Amino acid sequence: MAMLPTPTTHVEDTADTQKEPPYHLILLDDNEHTYQYVIAMLGSVFGYAPEKGFAIACVVDSQGQAILMTSGLEEVRLKQDQVHAYGADPLMPGCKGSMTAVIEPAE
Question: Residue range 50-79: average pLDDT?
Answer without folding.
Answer: 97
